[in-house]
Amino acid sequence: MIDKLLEGNKKFREGFFTENKACYDELCKGQNPSVLWIGCSDSRLQTGHITQTMPGTLFIQRNIGNVVPIHDWNFATVLEYAIRHLKVKDIVICGHSDCGAIKALDKETDDVYIPLWLNNAVEAKNRVDAKIPPPKTHEEIKERSRMIEYENVRLQIEHLNRYPVVKKALAEKKIEIHGLYYDLTTGALTTIV
Fold first, then answer.
1. How far apart are alpha carbons 113 and 133 in whole angstroms?
2. Are strands 176-182 and 90-96 parallel, antiparallel or unpaired?
3. Residue 93's closest CA among 123, 138, 61, 120?
4. Residue 113 and residue 117: Cα distance in Å, rounded?
5. How far apart are CA 118 and CA 87, in angstroms?
6. Contact yes or no for 57/26 (Cβ under 8 A)
7. Is 131 exposed, middle or buried (0-12, 13-18, 19+ CB in 10 A)?
8. Helix (H, G, I), strand (E, B), or coil: what is residue 180?
9. What angle do helix axes 138-160 and 122-131 make, rounded to 10 degrees?
10. Closest by alpha carbon to 192, among 141, 145, 144, 152?
């Protein structure tokens, strides 16, 4: 597989990189992204491709379940750097269809770290389950998952709003926060209200 990655890089350098050399030369001088993108680690999502953005546009933080953890130094440093130093104007939290993290909320496991991480998303499941009867059909199960995926984006926005650096930037109207959802089946990216 590593040989395939290296061969892909060669094709990238000979094609897209060469065709956009001026852009890459500018990026060597520093970065100035306008968006902090918080998305899922799912390998089926390639953020730059689905948004057709050039390198340097998105400052990306990906993790299992597009989670905004409340007390996580790694996440906090990304957030602080993006807002205070890169001066991003928009923060996106993007969920997606068929999310394994959302499915895992219903499963018992002997994993050590995954359940701890997903505690940051379990409230989304609880909110949806409080609104609907237990699903019985395959379609109802799919719809429930979609509802939890949407609700998880909303929940993570709530978490994001708890960070002091975000509160300050919002109060000063320096940033806007957006919830998005990517459908793997259609390729569509839509807003979540």
1. 30
2. parallel
3. 61
4. 6
5. 29
6. no
7. exposed
8. strand
9. 130
10. 152
Identity at 50, one-letter amino acid code: I
Distance CA 187, CA 18 (A): 28
**Could you give the CA distance from residue 92 to residue 40 in angstroms, rounded to a whole number?**
12
Regions of the chain where pLDDT drops below 70: none
Q: Residue 45: CA atoms inside 13 Å, Cβ hemisphere, count?
A: 28
Per-residue pLDDT of 138-158, as tens digits, reads 999 999 999 999 999 999 999
Determine the pLDDT at residue 186: 97
Residue 47 has which token pair? 């953020």
**pLDDT score for 71:** 86
Q: Residue 63 and residue 30: Cα distance in Å, rounded? A: 25
pLDDT at 155: 98
Model pLDDT, residue 72 = 92
pLDDT for the residue numbered 193: 83
pTM of the shown model: 0.93
Report angle CA 148, 189, 167 to the nearest 5 degrees.
70
Position 105 scores a pLDDT of: 96
Specify the pLDDT at position 145.
Answer: 97
Let me know: does 183 contact 96? Beta carbons within 8 Å: yes
Tokens of 102: 């959302």
